């Protein structure tokens, strides 16, 4: 299976985060190494517009391919458009046979090989169209509110107050793992009636977007040592 690691150069929350050193190693390296250690994955491709990210990807074992256009690496660019572009070029120019693939975000450095293998195993077992990693939400989603411009509170859900134990548990996507059939992505969708959730722990679900996230991931890694 092909592993696709999308890593654009621009980042507003934490500039240069994809190659920022985390415990002495570029952030993206953790995802590349985890992918290469999975028996299900045969090739790893870093999809980026940034030459520094690209070269670091090669250093840690990613395939030599191409840079994506800047228009597919902007704040308002759609990830699915990049997947379709990258997969099309890999199929037509590099001869890749892609019926299914996995997307691994580099901002999830605590995601384990066991998680990757578990998600792919679930995908194969169910003959799924997609499997997406999720984390259990500890608070009922109906507790969430909108904040008005004047600081007031506005309801999102029409729901009376209950004890937390009375609510049905919910999950949220953690951004770590996406396993897809190529045909699903080519149709412009992430989900179908044959999509499934792979549940990860809160610690392995850390998604780095800000310096606080980065420092928390660093703390957890150091503690694990």
Structure description:
The protein has a single domain, classed as Spore Coat Polysaccharide Biosynthesis Protein SpsA, Chain A (Alpha-Beta Complex), CATH 3.90.550.10. The longest helix has 16 residues. By secondary structure, it is an alpha/beta fold. The chain starts with a strand and ends with a helix.
The biggest sheet amounts to: 6 strands, mixed
Architecture per CATH nomenclature, i.e. the level-2 architecture? Alpha-Beta Complex
Radius of gyration: 19 Å
The CATH superfamily is identified as Spore Coat Polysaccharide Biosynthesis Protein SpsA, Chain A
List how many beta strands DSSP finds. 10
The low-confidence parts are none
- Mean model confidence by pLDDT: 92
The first-level CATH class name: Alpha Beta
> What would the principal axes of the Cα set say about the shape?
globular
Essential attributes:
alpha/beta, six-stranded mixed beta sheet, 225 residues, 30% helix, 6 helices
What is the topological layout?
Elements: E1 2-6, E2 21-22, E3 25-26, H1 27-36, E4 43-47, H2 51-59, H3 79-94, E5 100-104, H4 113-126, E6 130-136, E7 145-147, E8 153-155, E9 171-181, H5 182-186, E10 195-200, H6 211-224
Parallel strand pairs: 1-4, 1-5, 6-10
Antiparallel strand pairs: 2-3, 5-9, 6-9, 7-8
Brief summary:
The chain is α/β, with parallel strands linked by helices.
